Amino acid sequence: MSKTRFDGKFGDYGGQYVPEALMPAIEELEDAYERYVLANEDGFMDEFRERLADFGGRPTPTQYAERLSERYDRDVYLKREDLLHGGAHKLNNALGQVLLAKYMGKERIVAETGAGQHGTATAMAAAHLDMPCEVYMGERDINRQRPNVFRMKLNGSEVNPVTVGRGTLKEAISETMRDWATNVEDTHYVIGSVVGPHPFPAMVRDFQSVISEEAREQMREKAGTLPDSVLACAGGGSNTMGAFAEFVDDDGVELYAVEAGGSTLDVDEEAGVAPNSASLSTGSEGVLHGARTKLLQDRDGQIMESHSVSSGLDYAGVGPELAYLVDEGRVRAVNVDDDAALTAFHRLSQLEGVIPALETAHAFAYLEANDEELGDTVLVNVSGRGDKDLESVIEETAQRDIDIAPDMDAFAGGF
Amino acid sequence: MSNPELDAAFADGAAFVPYLAAGDPDFESSIEYVEALERGGADVIELGLPFSEPIAEGPTIQEAVVRSLEGGMTPARFFEFVEALDVDVPLVCMTYYNLIYQYGDESGPRPFVEKAAELGLSGFVVPDLPAEEADPLREACDEFGLDLVFIVAPTTRGDRLERIMEQVSGYVYVQARLGVTGAQDDVSGQTAASLDRLSAYDVPKAVGFGIKTGDHAERIVEGGADGIIVGSALVDIVAEGHENGDDAATVAARLEEKARELKDGAERGLAQRAPQAERT
After folding, report:
1. Are strands B172-175 and B147-152 parallel, antiparallel or unpaired?
2. What residue spans define the domains of chain A?
3. Where are the N6-(pyridoxal phosphate)lysine residues found in this chain (chain A) (predicted)?
4. Which H or E run contains A137?
5. CATH class for the region spanning B4-271
6. Which CATH number applies to A62-87+209-398?
7. What global pTM score does this model have?
């Protein structure tokens, strides 16, 4: 390639903060990323796109949302990633990375998962491409997300419980990195978001950018114009970067990363708990899981326990490129709390017949509260569907007074 | 580039470098444990400052990190810990980059290194900081006369090895096998090849990962290592004592005994190597 080699830095963010044992694997992956993904060597990208179409069901539609448009008196469009195979955008990345691992001659896949969406997507991709796969998942998440555990097992993956610490996503990431450090010669780590050491943030963004690539064209066709604003929820930030990537150079398009404000933005330093996952809105610069980025950390630099009603957003860090775009003023970091997200979940289910993931509901909650600043044409990325969240929605709704919600008492206590 | 204390510690060619997490399971006991290591023959002591996400550690040291954090360990307490220790051997701080980076009022590694220098620490090992990202810490270490130890893995070759060896000072931490820290029975496998790759470099080579007995220590030193680094086998003793509710003095005595076994093993290895060295 004629371009100077990208060093993995987004301003001061990014980089490769990993144990030495992993560095050769990271360098090997960098090389594979440049050859297969960026330069389409051996037709890698062609095969990836073909499999995304035939196995994944791409392109996903961009749909005009009639009742939301009426409610907000502006045009609202939905990018329907919930219609991708598996019910979320996660497959774009998982399929890309498992295929890349195959091209690299790797024989084994490991992955971490929080809510189980990335784990199930990786398990599907691994079964589809005939690769053995082990998924690390916090014990607490295993208990919260049993259906996803079964889905992974049905696809032939092993699910390894992680019991250290609080047993959620950040412990699962650490544990998967340890597995990778031990088995680095034959194993590829399919990271689930635009986080981790270079080349992961750039590579995952590239696999996910099919979202905005399609949406941009579809908006041109359907609306005859680009949107004034694009909204996407942001945890680690893979659907966010996917929804933004092709719009970043369009100056007239405002980009909104909607974070989980959890129960409050206030932080309990003493207990090491941030009852939110809003690292872009409230975090500070630091180094976690291989990258310099924005983090929820105490003043010593210990990583805090994050919180969100949506386990897919429940992470103390965020992708380095997103942190950079926020600092640069290109992306606006905003947040909504658990209550608003739950209310939006019910609203979208009722108004549009789309039951969104709780993660996705955050983007719609921001639309409800701030529709006027978003311009005449708004595109919202429906990053996933909400079937996986029904049990927690019933529980969480029963604890609150959400006037538009149906009576949940009959369901409380589980199915 | 190396500071004299670490040079001296490796001078006789069979240095014993034990590791413990500072404050595991509590401040006072941990002081006794570290001091016991010196009595047992430690030449350098690696003191872990626990980070909440220790991605390079196996289960044994992860648990130590959890115990130490639950016992209230923080960077500020760590420096108090170093101050309270009554040991003469050089101390090396092992921690993750974010804690070094966040310390003090200005961002960057300088305030942490300055404080470490003030308390007489000799150097750092930072497992999540590869040579590529190490310039700011290297500069601060040079400014205050501290050493920066790097880990060389069995997979480290060619250009990477060159880059690391340009940055390293004090000693190089030779990772005996792939994976994370932890005691194992098989220690010899990849070590010889790693030592061979490093033989051209004039810096002490300390081998770690998986050493847990005097016999292991003997074989590693006989095979050409200038020192042995032992963590998990010692942390296991702390963990067991904690679980059984043993008093600190008893645990300290066990640590001292284990330390002596390891140091003796290293010296036997050196003795066996000496005649061969003369022949060649």
Report:
1. parallel
2. 16-54+90-204, 62-87+209-398
3. 90
4. strand A133-138
5. alpha beta
6. 3.40.50.1100
7. 0.94
Residue among A157, A193, A310, A383 flagged as catalytic: A383
Q: Which pair of tokens denotes residue A141?
A: 């998440």
Res B183 pLDDT > 60: no
Which of B102, B164, B209 to mutate: most A Cβ within 10 Å? Answer: B102
| Residue B191 backbone zone (phi > 0: left; psi -120 to 50: alpha; other: beta) | alpha
Name the residue among B99, B133, B157 with its Cβ closest to that of A17.
B133
- What pLDDT, in 10s, does the model give residues A130-162? 999 999 999 888 887 888 999 999 999 999 999
Q: Which fold, A16-54+90-204?
A: Rossmann fold (3.40.50)
A289 Cα distance to chain centroid: 16
- For residue A95, what are the CA distances in angstroms to A25, A85, A129, A159, A401? 20, 11, 9, 19, 41
Of B56, B157, B160, the CB nearest to A19: B56
In a mutagenesis test of the A interface, which of B65, B79, B126, B128 is the best target, namely the one with the most A β-carbons within 10 Å? B128
Chain-chain contact of B157 with A24 (C-beta, under 8 angstroms): yes
CB atoms B175 and A15 under 8 Å: no
Nearest to A181 among B53, B152, B178 (CB): B178
Q: Where do the H-state alpha helices sit in A194-331?
A: 200-208, 210-223, 238-244, 279-282, 320-327
CB contact, 8 Å: B156 with chain A? Answer: yes
> Can you give the residue ranges of every domain in chain B?
4-271
For residues A359-379, give the mean pLDDT: 96
Residues of B acting as catalytic residues: 46, 57
Exposure string over B78-115, b if 16+ CB within 10 A, otherwise e: bbebbeebebebbbbbbbbbbbbbbbbeeebbbbbbeb
The alpha-carbon gap from A228 to the nearest alpha carbon of chain B, in Å, equals 37
- How far B156 CA sits from the closest chain A CA (Å)? 7
Closest to A235 measured CA to CA, from A192, A299, A265: A192
Separation CA A121–CA A115 (nearest Å): 12
Q: Given this model, what pLDDT does residue B275 score?
A: 63
As a three-state string, the secondary structure of B6-28 is: HHHHCCCCCEEEEEEECCCCCHH
Which among B51, B55, B126, B175 is the top mutation candidate for probing chain A, defined by the most A β-carbons within 10 Å of its own β-carbon?
B55
Span B139-159, average pLDDT: 94
- Contact between A362 and A336 under an 8 Å Cβ cutoff? The reply is yes
Give the distance from residue A207's alpha carbon to the nearest chain B alpha carbon, in angstroms.
26
Cβ atoms of B143 and B19 within 8 Å: the answer is no
Q: Is the separation of the CB atoms in B56 and B30 below 8 Å?
A: no
Share of chain A above pLDDT 70, in %: 97
Q: Which class for B269: exposed (0-12), middle (13-18), buried (19 or more C-beta within 10 A)?
A: buried
Q: Specify whether the CB–CB gap between B188 and B223 falls below 8 A.
A: yes
Structure tokens at A347: 């609203």
Q: Is cis: bond before A61, omega within 30 of 0? A: no
